[in-house]
């Protein structure tokens, strides 16, 4: 097909007889009455609106724009030139170009095919490595940070002091390997950093390279695997080859679980897929280190339980360093590191921010500081103050405050009593976190929220705390129903959280006397096509009964508290309708039966409408949507 198109069989060119060619030339059927003389042919282009010449030799119509040519012998062209000149035809001599183009059209496709065949055969003969048949597909896609470009040190890493202490020996080995060889010791060649996303695994690995002043090769596990078989293994070999040439250095494999999952797990089509070939290449390369190779392989994952055992055996990633979420002191240290990049006001208390951000990772805290700087900039402030940090935290955790949302009065009343019910139960019960603020300003998907400020980090939950938390969750629905004689979907997150607490207590934590010290929830590490359970239908019935019993007991106790303290619920609700946001000291005053004397939201709006310029908000304005850690509608610490 390609041969036919190039040689004119498809209609671009037509061969004709001398009689037909001469007749068309005599009838002025060629463009500009022009003919081109080449080495082996005479050709012309058919003009528009032409028909076949009269006579038996010109019986075929040729479309306009078609090249018509007549083959000639090279030593016979004078006779043809004389005949055509007598017919008034102009000549263009194109003999040299015509010979080359004729050769190219005749033999070009065949030469191209032969060249491609030779190219692929030669590449294949050189092997399937990075320079073989795979070409650039087999080259590693890593990023290299050399000694000059990597400026990260341990001073930039905060909140993970135990992890930093555990990797100090790696720095010593990269700086002075002979020190460890003196007594015959062997430094671990593979270090696995395990932790939740955003807790600083990559930053810690960069800091190790920066402290040791060595090159840092980094690549994600997903960058090894492509649609072509063998590409991942080729990239592994290329990466380790470049690393050995640049030693001493560090190789960092981020998200290694993308290629390091247990072989044979899941439901793949076979045991020799691309991912497993890549994993095998990593195992082989790590076994191939010589004592003189100063290459440390580090990897990061948040799913160490799914890794292949061959990866974590001694000699490979045998050292696991846990990088946890920071505690309150760690969060304060991280905030201090990131706060150096912005202008902070003199009244900022980073300890308070750290207390109000449990379960925040280092990445979350960095985003918080940056968001606070953006909020302060949009407000034309000279520095970032405490309100900006609080607003940034709330925006990251629950979304932006929707102060302009138009809410119907009936919904405002229902929301006010709902949040007041949460607040009163939480203020009355022991074993709960202190209430910090209550608001009916919509934020995200919620119409209001009750915020808490935990006094300490919680690493586990006792029964009293869980039961008190479920009662707080029930308080909103109870107060809303009593005031409006109706219920709404606003308690959906409360129901979800209460059910989650109860099911964890029964299934995972052995807090049911009827079921005892047994775990009934399925193994999260076991992969299965269909959901299964390891207990009988009778046990399933008991589980449902125990979950309902716990929630019913919490609901009954919350209902008793609401009934006994209904006056306080009503007082807080009315204050919320007037002020929209109440701080902890105001809540305590209302619980004692006292009144609030500050200007209401309606009063502030009236002042703004009468003032020629908007009043400047003071830094201690209690009406601002300042908030803290946990909320009653879904932001309580997760039990899981």
Give the helix/strand layout.
Layout: H1 2-6, E1 13-15, H2 18-26, E2 34-37, E3 41-45, E4 67-71, H3 77-86, E5 90-93, H4 95-125, E6 143-145, H5 161-166, H6 168-175, H7 177-181, E7 190-194, H8 201-212, E8 216-220, H9 231-245, E9 249-254, H10 274-287, E10 295-301, H11 309-312, E11 319-322, H12 328-339, H13 350-355, H14 362-378, H15 386-398, H16 409-428, E12 435-439, E13 449-452, H17 463-484, H18 492-507, H19 537-564, H20 566-579, E14 581-583, H21 584-591, H22 601-610, E15 630-631
Parallel strand pairs: 1-4, 2-5, 7-10, 7-11, 8-9, 9-10
Antiparallel strand pairs: 2-3, 3-4, 6-8, 12-13, 12-14, 13-15
Architecture overview:
By secondary structure, this protein is of the alpha/beta class. Helix content is 45%, strand content 10%. It is built from 22 helices and 15 strands. Strand 9, helix 10 and strand 10 form a beta-alpha-beta unit. Helix 6 runs parallel beside helix 8, helix 14 packs across helix 15 and helix 16 packs across helix 20. The longest helix is centred in the N-terminal third of the chain and has 31 residues. The N terminus and C terminus are likely disordered.
């Amino acid at each position: 097909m390609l041969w036919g198109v190039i040689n004119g069989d498809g209609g671009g060119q037509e061969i004709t007889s001398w009689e037909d060619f001469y007749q068309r030339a005599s009838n002025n059927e060629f463009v500009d009455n022009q003919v081109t003389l080449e080495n082996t042919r005479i050709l012309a282009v058919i003009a528009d609106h032409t028909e076949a010449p009269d006579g038996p030799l010109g019986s075929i119509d040729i479309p306009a724009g078609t090249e018509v040519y007549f083959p000639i012998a090279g030593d016979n062209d004078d006779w043809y030139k004389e005949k055509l000149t007598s017919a008034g035809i102009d000549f263009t001599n194109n003999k040299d170009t015509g010979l080359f183009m004729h050769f190219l059209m005749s033999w070009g496709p065949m030469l191209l095919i032969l060249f491609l065949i030779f190219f692929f055969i030669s590449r294949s003969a050189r092997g399937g490595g990075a320079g073989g048949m795979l070409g650039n597909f087999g080259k590693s896609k890593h990023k290299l940070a050399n000694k000059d470009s990597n400026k990260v040190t341990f001073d930039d890493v905060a909140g993970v002091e135990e992890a930093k202490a555990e990797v100090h020996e790696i720095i010593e080995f990269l700086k002075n390997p002979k020190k460890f060889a003196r007594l015959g010791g062997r430094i671990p060649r593979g270090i696995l950093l395990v932790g939740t996303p955003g807790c600083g695994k990559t930053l810690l690995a960069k800091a190790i390279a920066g402290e040791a002043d060595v090159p840092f090769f980094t690549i994600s596990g997903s960058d090894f695997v492509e649609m072509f078989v063998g590409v991942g293994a080729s990239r592994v070999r290329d990466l380790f080859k470049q690393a050995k040439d640049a030693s001493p250095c560090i190789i960092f494999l981020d998200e290694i679980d993308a290629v390091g999952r247990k072989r044979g797990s899941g439901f793949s089509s076979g045991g020799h897929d691309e991912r497993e070939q890549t994993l095998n290449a990593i195992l082989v390369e790590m076994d191939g280190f010589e004592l003189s190779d100063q290459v440390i392989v580090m990897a990061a994952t948040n799913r160490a339980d799914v890794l292949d055992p061959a990866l974590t055996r001694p000699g490979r990633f045998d050292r696991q360093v846990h990088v946890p979420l920071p505690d309150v002191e760690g969060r304060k240290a991280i905030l201090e590191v990131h706060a150096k990049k912005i202008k902070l006001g003199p009244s900022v208390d980073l300890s308070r921010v750290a207390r109000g951000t449990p379960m925040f990772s280092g990445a979350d805290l960095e985003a918080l500081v940056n968001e606070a700087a953006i909020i302060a900039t949009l407000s034309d402030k000279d520095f970032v103050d405490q309100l900006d940090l609080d607003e940034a935290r709330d925006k990251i955790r629950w979304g932006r405050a929707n102060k302009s949302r138009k809410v119907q009065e009936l919904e405002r009343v229902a929301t006010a009593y709902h949040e007041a019910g949460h607040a009163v139960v939480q203020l009355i019960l022991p074993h709960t976190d202190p209430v910090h603020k209550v608001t009916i300003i919509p934020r995200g998907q919620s119409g209001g929220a009750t915020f808490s400020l935990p006094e300490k980090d919680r690493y586990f939950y006792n029964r009293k705390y869980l039961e008190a938390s479920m009662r707080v969750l029930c308080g909103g629905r109870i107060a809303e129903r009593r005031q409006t004689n109706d219920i709404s979907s606003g308690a959906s997150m409360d129901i979800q959280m209460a059910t989650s607490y109860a099911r964890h207590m029964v299934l995972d934590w052995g807090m049911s006397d009827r079921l005892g010290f047994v775990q009934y929830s399925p193994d999260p590490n076991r992969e299965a096509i269909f959901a299964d359970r390891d207990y009988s239908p009778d046990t399933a019935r008991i589980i449902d009964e125990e979950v309902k019993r716990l929630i019913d007991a919490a609901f009954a106790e919350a209902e008793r508290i609401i009934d006994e303290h209904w006056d306080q619920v009503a007082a807080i609700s009315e204050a919320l309708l007037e002020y929209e946001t109440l701080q902890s000291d105001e809540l305590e005053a209302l619980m004692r039966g006292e009144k609030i004397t500050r200007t209401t939201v309606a009063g502030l709006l009236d002042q703004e409408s009468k003032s020629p310029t908007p009043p400047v908000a003071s830094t201690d304005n209690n009406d601002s949507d300042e908030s803290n850690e946990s909320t009653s509608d879904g932001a309580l610490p997760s039990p899981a």
